[in-house]
């Protein structure tokens, strides 16, 4: 089969690899039908995040099940399903608590398509065939009528966005939400978060950014936009999201978190930013950061899509698989690859 390898910043190439075989009775083999770049992929491709190649590329996508092991009961060949980017067994103690990003059955942080950080053994999703080691635990069947191209990011970035606003709005229905975006941040996660907060019934969703393109998407998603660099404080919101990737954006989100509020940062900081800890202490402000545990959130976001949330508004471009390598040389914010075209 063919698989796409990342060999350096903005450098990818297709190469021949051995066809995978079913590794056990719980596993499935699947063919990708719609793939997406993750915000971290874009950071790697543009040299902002140091993840050295070569490694098999791609960790977001919808697949068609091709073959299943004898013990698999939830999917059959031909089913369309979202494959979580994190490998999880579904039965170890962390998986049973929904902490599927820390599955104890495999080396910590086991994922598709993130090089040595995620383990090279799982391969990447930009390949003709993909192994899903725990098909029943991992795969989430696509609801009827949901377009695979619309939810190609449901493996990672959309559920990552959901965890920044979903549980918080469930605990505080109708609360106001602030999302801070920025050039160095996980931009699609910030936009999905704004759109999901609108879909989940937040009273007001404010999206702060300097980029005209992202501001236009936020408007289309139903958010009110605040244009400009992050101020010291942008108001007082029970729920804030730092998708800026900048110390100034994080500080703005934290200073704008209301008394007893929660700020979630899906940004990855390689250098420790200064935190306004005394002010956070005074307001009883919670800061949550860390990798998302995506598997339990995937059915939730698929239901929101089936109910009308449109993640395609965040998609920058859709290309055929044959054009994927060229498109990845200058990656837009959110590239979707149509493997069936
Ligand atoms: Zn990712
Ligand atoms: Zn597990």
Topology as H/E string?
A: EEEHEEEHHEHEHEHEHEEHEHEHEHE
Seen as an oligomer or otherwise, the chain set is single chain
Low-confidence segments: none
Number of strand segments: 16
Relative strand content: 15-25%
How would you summarize this macromolecular structure in one to three sentences?
The chain is of the alpha/beta class and 341 residues long.
How does this model look, in words?
- The structure is a single chain.
- It is built from 11 helices and 16 strands.
- With 341 residues, the protein is of the alpha/beta class.
- It starts with a strand and ends with a strand.
- The mean pLDDT is 97.
- One zinc ion binds next to helix 2.
Highlighted features:
single chain; 341 residues; alpha/beta; 11 helices; globular; binds zinc ion
Topology, element by element:
Layout: E1 2-8, E2 11-16, E3 28-36, H1 39-45, E4 55-56, E5 61-68, E6 80-82, H2 93-96, H3 115-118, E7 130-132, H4 135-138, E8 140-141, H5 157-171, E9 177-181, H6 187-199, E10 205-209, H7 212-220, E11 224-227, E12 237-243, H8 247-255, E13 257-265, H9 277-283, E14 286-289, H10 298-306, E15 317-320, H11 324-328, E16 335-338
Parallel strand pairs: 9-10, 9-12, 10-11, 12-13, 13-14, 15-16
Antiparallel strand pairs: 1-2, 1-4, 3-5, 3-7, 3-16, 5-6, 6-8
Bound molecules: zinc ion (2 copies).
Residues 88-89, 92, 94-95, 103-105 line the site of one zinc ion (ZN).
């Amino acid at each position: 089969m063919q698989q796409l390898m990342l060999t350096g910043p903005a450098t990818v190439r297709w190469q021949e690899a051995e066809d995978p075989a079913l590794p056990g009775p719980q596993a499935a083999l699947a063919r990708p039908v719609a793939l997406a770049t993750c915000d971290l992929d874009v950071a790697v491709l543009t040299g902002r995040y140091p993840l050295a190649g070569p490694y098999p590329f791609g960790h977001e996508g919808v697949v068609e099940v091709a073959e299943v092991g004898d013990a698999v009961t939830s999917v059959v060949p031909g089913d369309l399903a979202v494959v979580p980017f994190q490998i999880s067994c579904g039965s170890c103690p962390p998986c049973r608590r929904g902490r599927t990003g820390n599955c104890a059955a495999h080396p910590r942080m086991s994922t598709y398509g993130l090089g040595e950080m995620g383990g090279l053994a799982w391969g990447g999703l930009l390949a003709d065939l993909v192994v899903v080691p725990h098909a029943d635990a991992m795969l989430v069947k696509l609801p009827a009528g949901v377009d695979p191209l619309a939810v190609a990011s449901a493996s990672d970035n959309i559920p990552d966005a959901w965890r920044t606003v979903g549980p918080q709005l469930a605990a505080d229905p109708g609360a106001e939400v602030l999302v801070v975006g920025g050039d160095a941040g996980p931009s699609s996660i910030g936009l999905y978060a704004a759109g999901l907060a609108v879909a989940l019934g937040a009273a007001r969703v404010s999206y702060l950014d300097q980029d005209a393109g992202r501001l236009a998407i936020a408007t289309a998603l139903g958010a009110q936009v605040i244009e400009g660099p992050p101020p010291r404080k942008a108001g007082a919101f029970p729920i804030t999201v730092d998708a800026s990737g900048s110390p100034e954006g994080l500080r703005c989100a934290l200073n704008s978190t209301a008394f007893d509020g929660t700020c979630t940062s899906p940004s990855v900081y390689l250098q420790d930013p200064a935190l306004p800890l005394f002010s956070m202490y005074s307001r009883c402000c919670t800061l949550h950061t860390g990798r998302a545990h995506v598997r339990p959130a995937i059915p939730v976001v698929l239901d929101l899509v089936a109910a009308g949330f449109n993640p395609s508004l965040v998609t920058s471009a859709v290309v055929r698989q044959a054009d994927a390598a060229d498109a990845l040389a200058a990656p837009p914010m959110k590239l979707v690859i149509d493997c069936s075209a």
